[in-house]
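Table S7 (text form). Paired inputs.
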Amino acid sequence: MADFFQTRMGQKFYEADVPRIAKALERIADALEAQNRSAPSVCPHCKEQPATHKLDPFSGQAVCEPCHKALREEWDSRRPR
């Protein structure tokens, strides 16, 4: 029995699919880098404190620690139990 890389499917995978996956990953990385460069340095909710790596559970935006805590509590209160 032939090894996978010796089959037509294996050749297609390594010669076409893997390069296409690599290019897609590069595009994703470029988009994330661009998003991080344009990320606000001030919390969009309180407009006072610097934004952290914490994310608003509703919008996905970076927010400050106090706003994150308040938004997280609101998020948890809306979740069905």
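Next pair, protein 2 of 2.
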Amino acid sequence: MEGENDIFCIHATPKRWVRIRIKEDNGSVFGVAADVTEETREKIRIEHERDYDSLTGLCNIDIFKKRGGEHTAAGDFGICGDGHDGSGQF
């Protein structure tokens, strides 16, 4: 998951997520793996509700601007207007 360095997706059907924590102590290495599937699914659901309209499924304006800015910066495409905003520019 994005921003989670210790959570890994297991590509199974259905998908599962585990958190792996590793600790080194006096030359020994200890690890703990925990199933965090339910918490991760809930986080994904909440992020989707935040970023997408529940009726249309379209992304909200903040996500549109962010993704549009990423693509225009990468040179993938450009955005142009029709001149009807009063700016006189196309």
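The CA atoms of residues 78 and 85 lie 18 Å apart.
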